[in-house]
Amino acid sequence: MARLVLATAAIMLTAAIGTAHAEKLTIAVSTPEVQISSNFSGTSITVFGVVEPDAATVSRVGRYEVAVLVLGPARTVVARRKDRIVGIWTNWAAETIIGAPTFYALDSSDEIDAITTPVVLDRLALGFDNIPFAFRGTDVNDPDTAEFRAAFLRLKEKAGLFSEATDVAFIGDTIFRSITWLPANTPTGRYSVLAYLFSGQSLVAHAEDTLFVTQTGFDQMMTAFAHGHALIYGLFCAGIAVFVGWLGGVIFRRD
Amino acid sequence: MLIYLPIAELSVNMFIIFGMGGAVGFLSGLFGVGGGFLLTPLLIFSGIPPVVSVATVATQIVASSTSAALSYWRRRLIDVKLAAVLLSAGIIGSGLGVQVFNLLRRLGQLDLIVSLAYVTFLGLVGGLMLTESLRAIVNTRRGRPAPLRRPGQHIWVHGLPFKMRFKRSRLYVSVIPIVALGLVIGFLGALLGIGGGFIMVPAMIYLLRVPTNVVIGTSLIQIMATMAVATVLHAVSSQSVDVILAIILMVGGVIGAQFGARVGQTIRGDQLRALLAVTVLAVAIRFLVGLVTMPVERYGLTVLGAG
Questions:
Q1: How do residues B57-68 score in pLDDT, each as one tens digit?
Q2: In whole angstroms, what is the distance from residue A3 CA to residue B276 CA?
Q3: H or E stretch including B174?
Q4: Do A148 and A239 belong together in one domain?
Q5: What's the domain count of chain A?
Q6: Testing the interface with B: which of A90, A185, A255 to mutate, by most B Cβ within 10 A?
Q7: Which residue in A31, A135, A220, B178 has its CB near the most CB atoms, within 10 A?
Q8: Statement: residue A21 has pLDDT above 70
Q9: B255: helix, strand or coil
Q10: Mean pLDDT of B37-56
């Protein structure tokens, strides 16, 4: 009996591995380069995906589930908590968060917990609870870190930079579409777009693409100027100020 | 209309910012002050990072003080020698202010120090100004003449060494209080994003006994120079001067100041001072409330950099 169970399990396992690479997933981002210009007030990007089942998987029962993740560049962030010190609320406790993405938008075709197992969710960093980041110099078991982690997620969500949705739309059986909103305060840099295809709780295919968020035109020039030639930029700003002041004084001359 | 600020990395409504610049410009024209102490808090309260607010208001103050200084220059109401001594010290003070600003920013205590400083200085100056102007108003009502200032009166300041002659102000005083004043104003200006006129003007009148007619023009020159230096130093040390934000504020401020100045001429001096005192106190109280009440959100995030 035991041997039979083992054998069945082995066959099922082989089948699972065998089909794991049977589907081909291809994705494309509508705007591979999002340009932030002076009238930028946020924009949406669309991720299109195509599932190509091969002959062996056409007969697969149940529908596909998809999770699309848009990840912004990682940056080190200091989170501070205000505490009451001699009657005054001031920044007191602080934690340095390393490696957390600046932007995290998860879109899936169903509730993420229903799509796959917690182990897979954790491995693929799907869901707020599974976003990987570390605290510098603090024990992971420190009760404070849980509080800081929750606060970090809450602030990011409030800023519109972290989001979870279940809006992946299938067009037919094999084509899907996911829309992600990049708000006005979207950080610049290289973004990863990751798509995961699930069938019957297991991951069957994945695909990756990149997205660049860059400043353009005058704004890009000014940012590059401000960082690259800080002294000249400073003198330039002071110069403009003197000029505008002088101009105002001349235009509105009253004597 | 939304406009993207490249340094602050966020979008703001251009007309709201323009309106703020205009409103503060109006008040500064009305009261004859720089208005930095109103503009910096307004920007911070509207969501612009404090670092960018302080640095950018420094730039805006350069424009508004240039504009105002120009009209005093035409009327020869500036003591150039006094201004030169003040601004030399002011530039050093400004340099120190930027250093302390960056140190506090790293420690995460910039907001606290800025709030405490606003409460202290605005509360003190606003309180003094209010009592002085109310007394003046009561005196006028009762038909009593304003107390005359005796020009020959000496206080401890006039006993200090290193005396210098300032012909335009008809003064012969020690440079120590002048240098100290320049240092303090330059330091506070760079640290808090204020011109400091509201501290400097009374100090010059009551401490140094500079004639009232040259006080404002001279202090404007000092403010213009120290804020220009603060702009450059902030740009170099923290890259936090937002040129787009600065230009919107400048244009709004310069226009607003013209209307303010016109209205200001129709209001009596003591009433004007009482109004200014109330405004200054209101800002101080707003900061005090922020310090002592429990914040809605106790947590805050600061991005350090890539990694």
A1: 999 999 988 888
A2: 91
A3: strand B171-174
A4: no
A5: 2
A6: A90
A7: B178
A8: no
A9: helix
A10: 87
Residue numbers in A near B21 (CB within 8 A): none
Q: Are A177 and A168 in contact (CB under 8 A)?
A: yes
**Token pair for A31:** 């705007």
Nearest to B126 by CA among B285, B19, B250: B285
CATH at residue A183 = 2.60.40.1930
φ and ψ at residue B12, rounded to 5 degrees: -130, 160
Does A148 share its domain with A228?
A: no
**Residue A1 located in a structural domain:** no
Q: Are residues A39 and A158 in the same domain?
A: yes
Q: Distance between CA A251 and CA A187 in Å, rounded?
A: 40
Q: Is A93 a member of any domain?
A: yes
Of B75, B236, B302, the CB nearest to A77: B302
**How many contacts, defined by CB atoms under 8 Å, are there between A and B?**
212
* A-chain residues near B6 (CB < 8 A): 215, 218-220, 222-223, 226
A108: containing domain: 16-215
What would the pLDDT profile of B108-143 be if each residue is shown by its tens digit?
888 888 889 989 988 988 898 898 888 888 888 887
Q: With an 8 Å Cβ cutoff, is B277 touching chain A?
A: no
Residue B181 to chain A, least CA–CA distance (Å): 23
Residues A11, A138: contact at Cβ < 8 Å?
no
Beta strands in chain A (DSSP E): 24-29, 33-36, 43-52, 65-71, 74-85, 88-101, 104-108, 134-135, 162-165, 169-171, 175-182, 189-199, 202-215
Same domain, A145 and A200: yes
Residue A238 shares a structural domain with residue A164: no
Strand partners, B28: none
**What is the C-alpha separation between A148 and A83, in angstroms, rounded?**
13
Flag whether the pTM goes above 0.90.
no
Is residue A124 domain-shared with residue A189, that is, in the same domain? Answer: yes
- Three-class SS state of A37: coil
Distance CA A115, CA A96 (A): 33
Q: How far is B115 from chain A (nearest CA, A)?
A: 10
Cβ distance B288 to B54 under 8 Å? Answer: no
Contact residues, chain A, for B302 at CB < 8 Å: 77-78, 80
* Angstroms from B26 CA to nearest CA on chain A: 14
Min Cα distance B11 → chain A (Å) is 6
